[in-house]
Amino acid sequence: MSTEGPTPENEAAEPGDGGEWSDRLFGGFRKTSERLTGNLAGIVGKARLDDAQLDDIEDALIMSDLGPRAAARIRERLAEERFERDADERAIMEVVAREIAEILRPVAKPLDVVAFPRPQVILVIGVNGSGKTTTIAKLAHLFQEQDYAVMLAAGDTFRAAAIGQLAVWAERLGVPIVKGPEGGDPASVVFDAVKAATDQGIDALIVDTAGRLQNKRELMDELAKIRRVLGRLNPEAPHDVVLVLDATNGQNALSQIEIFKEVAGVSGLIMTKLDGTARGGVLVAAAEQYGLPIHAIGVGEKIDDLRPFNPDLLARVIAGIA
User: Where is the signal peptide (predicted)?
Assistant: First the structure.
């Protein structure tokens, strides 16, 4: 089922407290943690793990989508570990969780509204189907919770559905939107949106952009034009270029980071649909391989299911340690 469009469940959702969010994390990452613990099941050792056991663990981490770099790093950490008792699955997972936390801490950076003069212009990019439109709405809601005034801009003019979906979300959230005709010039929409946001005292302007990767040159040219237009209005804009990734794509999400870094100058990531996959380990792979800020994660379809994360808690969630 697509998560692009609004649903009554989305509309009715109310923000939960930290405990509810923790519960959602454990529920959302259950498939990922079960896959990881399943791959590591049966590995036991003495005070130190031998090379064969370490090889098995490294392979298990790679099969759990943590990626070869993170797997090698965790293997090295485990090789240094002297366990007080014989190494069992729990003891191994404690070390895995600690090392995952070390990987995630440097990249766990919420998207802060700090631009002056306002607005802070946030370009949101990602392939069609990644949950980009819904993520924009969730991000707007997150800013609203922090008492920021938000505006949306429908810069994906190549899909009438994208314009329509964003307009529905704007109405439901009670935020203004700037849009143009289908097939219109995205840079013109962005220009109008920045002027309107400036006039209205908006704090954060979130801009949807096209998600086409069939022609990288065309997309690069389009984004370059948007940047030139923004530069004439505010040399600092765009302040953020946020790539939305669908965790269910697993390692393919990493190739999207590579491509969009090249064509769009990505400054940070949001990873969605972590609740619907056993491939949540790709979050760790992205952090270790690229080191880009990961501003928020999505673990559901409700409007408040996108939030910044605590790296130490999330590491234990991924490792399946309550």
Answer: none
